[in-house]
Amino acid sequence: MQWVSKISVIILSILLTSCIQDYEMDFSNADSRLSVVAELDPVNRVEVLVTLPKTPLDYGDYKIPNDAKVVIKEDGAFWDELEFISHDSSWSKGAYVSQKTISHGKKYDIEVQYRDYPIVSATQTVPEEFTIQEMSHNVNLHTIFDQHSFKGKIKFTPNHKDERYFAFQHYIYLIYFEEDESGETHQRDKFIIFRQEDQTGGFRDYRSFRVVSLRGPQELDFQLTWNVEEIQNLANIQNIFLVSVIEELSEDAYQYRRTLVHKNDDYYGELFRVYGNLQNGYGIFSSKVTQYIQTKIL
Amino acid sequence: MCVIERFRLWDIKAFLCFIFLFVGILHAFSAVQLKVQVKDKWSQDPLIGSSVVSLHQNIGQATDIDGFAQFILEPNTYTFCVHYLGYHSDTFHLILQADTNIYVELTEIANELEAVEVVFNYRTRSNGVVGIDNELLDKMPTFFGEREIIKAIQSLPGVQSGSEGSTSIFVRGGSSDQNLVTLDGIPLFHLSHLFGVLSVFNSDVVQKADLYKNYFSSALPNRLTSALNVFTKNPSYTEKHFSYQIGVLNTKIFFETPIIKDKLATYIAARGCHAGLYIKPITKSQYKLDDEKGYISYYFYDINAGLHYKVKSQNLLKWNFFFTDDRYTMFQEEERTSTTNLEQQYSIKYRENKLAWSNLNASFQHLKEWNSLSFFQQKFYLSQYKLKRGNNMIDEMYVRDSLLGLTKVNNTQFSSISEIGYQSLLDKTFQDHSIKTGIQTAWRLFSPDKSDFEEYVGENLRRRDEYNEYKIFTQEYAAFFEYQLKKKIVDIFSGVRFVYYKNGTYDKVSILPRISVEWKLPLSATIQFSSQINEQHLHMVNGHIGDIMKDYWVPANAHAPSESAWQQAISYKQHLHHWDWSVDLFYRSSKQQTESANTYNFRPNDTWETNIMSGGIGRAYGAEFYIAKKWKKINFSISYNLSKSERKFKELNRGQWFPYTHDRRHDVSAMVSYKFSPNFDISLAWVFGSGRPYSMVDLVYPSLQLVDYYADGYYNYYFLDNKKDQIQYNESRNNRKLTPFHHLDFGLNYKWSKKKWQHSLNLSIYNIYNHKNVFAVFEKHSGSGVTRSMKYQSITLLPTLPSISYAVGF
After folding, report:
1. A window 245-284, beta carbon within 8 A of B
2. Angle at the Cα of B599 (from B594 to B605), degrees rounded to 5?
3. Are the C-beta atoms of B588 and B225 separated by less than 8 Å?
4. Residue A285: its pLDDT value, please?
């Protein structure tokens, strides 16, 4: 039976040698349309990133056209043609920027033209300003330095019956002094963004925002956790602020974030199509309204 | 006068005697012989002790050791009934005028077989059921020396010809969980050994397999697309049999014996994988070649056992047991050295990945014949499938060769499904029609995604977390009624199934009707129309392409309701001058379909419900063609399926239809065999299937994360190849197809006998032309910084694989 064993070993060697070979994929249509990415917010300037998409095989910078025509209309009337500004220090090498400020509740249309590429267009209505009736939390110096989590509550005014979308981010902003090797003291600051542990609905998006869809008046609980050692290790703390960022998202922004976080949730996961609202292009033209609530703790 | 008178008187007496004698002789010579042989329809084994009884005359006999019963009868018209315990009775009428031989083939009750028509690679029944048995299986090339019943099923019309490393059954564009697989009528939840390379069915004990795809009886537990019933053999009540087989991968042993002759018999079959003996040293040396330490070990075994007892002449008790166990371990040892504060430190990391899965299937059956035309059957059973994945790590830190510290992390995930059930069946046959009715219950216990985490520092437990400890209990109760009418030109099968399902607060009541009408046309042709509604109350959550053993059973609930489907089929088939051909057309629409929205992984605080998308609709339609021809020593058959399977979900693919993962536009299976002699034959089999649809990136573009809102360069540190900041875009779900799947296989069988021992040798070559069928596609990254690059690569599991097996037995 020795020959049987020998043959078996040979066959198993073949079996166990996994056959790996290059696999050809056709990406010939990868850059046939433009990619446009922008999110309008009345507190920020308008910045539109226009790129040529690339294949997943390409590493390195995106090709960014600097002679595209980017026009935005407000309620159907011309609002501004955006100017390309080069960002030397930025990876993107530039984006199309307007120095004007957009307004709440207005409808904006974008149109991007570049050479023979199909014209990209999209429409977006910026949410109205919203009111927060009450925000409470139990954070104090003791909780920040000794505990790993705290609870809070936000109450909204009952100004909407339809479904609306909100995103919450909470962080601690610290100002402290640090001595360098020569003994000189420097003022430093630090952001500690909380993890939001609650499972009461919604999802966490890519910047530790908790995103929810709400209907009517709402009371929303939140529970935040942080690494307490990160704060305990700091000396000479001058000021501590608790900052809550609350964004009202347009439906497009909500769908975009919801699908984006789904995609990011599992690195090895099956492909999940990220929401987009552009005609003839890839990307998103969305909007949001942001409010900051700052509480001084120290 | 007196003499004359005396003579005449004697003469008259003699004449009368002669007449009486002549008439008597004539009478004796006019009696004819009727010889009836009774056989098992599938195995063709004689059925010893079958009763052959005339219904109107008080005559009857039991068959002898060759299955024969002989009668000397007057020419007349007779109606005989043949019955054998555990088999369907058969009745035949004949006008007996001369010596006659009658062959009666009985079918087992559990098999519910009708008139069988033999074609090359499968047998068909009048209601569209197709089956494969050992005789047919012998004609096909083996796989690692194993006669693979699942591979044979995959060659049938309407069944996908398989994919790389898969022993699941995909019928008419449905998923594997939509196909019910039973072993002796008991549901099975996992079918593979060796990550899908071999099926769990041991050919030593498999008697046959029936696939129901057009019409399946209401007596069968429901799934959406089809049902595959695999039957184990009955042990011999009269003779001992033994066989032993050694092949490349495994060793098999089979033994059956009567314990009390004609009363009590048993069999046991065991199969063990000895490949682990080779795998471990080979992988160890492969690691060594790469300057690493580690190994891979793998083994499996399975056991089939049965104990059958005939109580008196009308009761049969059967106890069947089936168990499989697979264990895989990958072990790696990694050593790292560092110098700190002038002290030599080094750490050793031991990583161990373990994977184990098992099936347990046990049943107790009772069959009772009330009379020759009616019987009752009941079963109690347990079916269980368990999957365990473990990732263990030990980290040892040494300073100057003394152990400084030790940390140990064990992460284990479990998934299981257990079903306990009861099934009963009452069958009554009349002259040209029959009824079946019964009840069924199935209590299932699911533990889909349990996870344990343990961390030790030294020997002290530092952290222990248990996630998803919950268990889900579901109940399913069903009653069915089946009516069959058989006339000269038409057969009608009809049935209805009433089901009540409950899972916590979610419950569902269903009425599931079905009908099949088959017309018998001239020239041995038949045309069949069938329509039925099916429903299933459990789902399988699948991993994505290339995932191994990431399939978990979950129950229907409010989040993922019970799936249902309506299927219609038309089938035309004909047997003419050694030609067999058939055409099937089907259309199936389904509701409440589920899809894995993302890869389902066990993660803390994450349940299966967060990764399953439900409420989808599906449609599948297609045509199946089959043709077979027999020339003296050559058999040839080819089947071709042209089909489409699509799905639509509100929240997937922008609400548009997309090709389902198991959509195969073209599927071909061809086979040819040549028999040199009764002991020597060769065969070739070729399969082809369109590539499996899958989702793959078409292009990438920046995400909003990369927009520098504040123009402060805050986000500048993000890397371009950081996937979080780029969106991988695919035009639609399942936008691409893998390269087509095909392979050609060769088989050679040679048998010989020496005294009472029978020997057989099998040589097989799988994938003769070494086509690199794709199992999975993955990204291969290399380089760093500006030299970074990426390309796609594919893995093939099964290249050309020659195999040999030798079996001996009596």
Report:
1. 256, 260, 262-274, 282-284
2. 95
3. yes
4. 95
User: CA-to-CA distance for B89 and B430, rounded, in angstroms?
Assistant: 11
**Tally of CB atoms within 10 A around A26:** 9
Give A97's contacts in chain B (Cβ within 8 Å). 711
Query: From its phi and psi, is residue B789 left (phi > 0), alpha (psi between -120 and 50) or beta?
Result: beta
Q: Are B34 and B102 in contact (CB under 8 A)?
A: yes
Question: How far is CA B473 from each of CA A297, B220, B417, B423, rounded to the nearest angstrom?
Answer: 50, 22, 10, 19
User: Is B789 within 8 Å of chain A by CB?
Assistant: yes
Mutation target vs B (from A17, A102, A271, A290; most B CBs, 10 A cutoff)? A271
What CA–CA distance (Å, rounded) separates B690 from B240? 47
Position B642 scores a pLDDT of: 95
What ipTM does this complex have? 0.84
* Contact in structure between B254 and B207 (CB atoms under 8 Å): no
Residue B15 is which amino acid?
F
Distance CA B690, CA B162 (A): 10
* d(C-alpha B480, C-alpha B426), whole Å: 10
- Each residue's pLDDT tens digit, A49-102: 899 988 888 877 788 898 999 999 999 999 999 999 886 554 556 889 998 999
Instruction: Please indicate if any CB of chain B lies within 8 Å of the CB of A101.
Output: no
Of chain B residues 581-600, which have a CB less than 8 A from chain A?
596-599
**Block residue for tokens 């894995």:** B596
Q: Give mean pLDDT, residues B104-120.
A: 52
Question: In this complex, which of B283, B598, B700 lies closest to A262 when CB atoms are compared?
Answer: B598
- In angstroms, rounded to a whole number, what is the distance separating the alpha carbons of residues A120 and A34? 7
Non-local (6+) Cβ contacts of A220 within 8 A are: A153, A154, A155, A156, A168, A200, A212, A214
Q: Least CB-CB distance to A47: which of B283, B709, B797?
A: B709
Please report, as a single letter, which amino acid is at residue B660: Y
Q: Report pLDDT digits (tens) over B119-155.
A: 445 555 555 666 676 666 777 777 667 778 888 888 8
Contact B254, B205 (CB under 8 A): yes
Query: CB–CB of A129/A210 below 8 Å?
Result: no
Q: Is the pLDDT of residue B227 over 70?
A: yes
**Secondary element (H or E) of residue B150:** helix B149-153
Average pLDDT of the residues in B255-278: 89
Q: How far apart are CA A63 and CA B717, in angstroms?
A: 19
Instruction: List, edge to edge, every strand of the sheet that includes A107-113.
Output: A77-81, A69-74, A107-113, A120-125
**Which residue of B720, B727, B779 is in closest CB contact with A274?**
B727
Tokens of B9: 């008187």
Bridge partner residues of B210 (DSSP): B131, B229
B388 and B328 Cβ atoms separated by less than 8 Å? no
What integer is the mean pLDDT of B474-500?
Answer: 93
Pick B793's closest partner by Cβ from A15, A20, A59: A20
Q: Which phi and psi (to 5°) does residue B92 adopt?
A: -135, 145
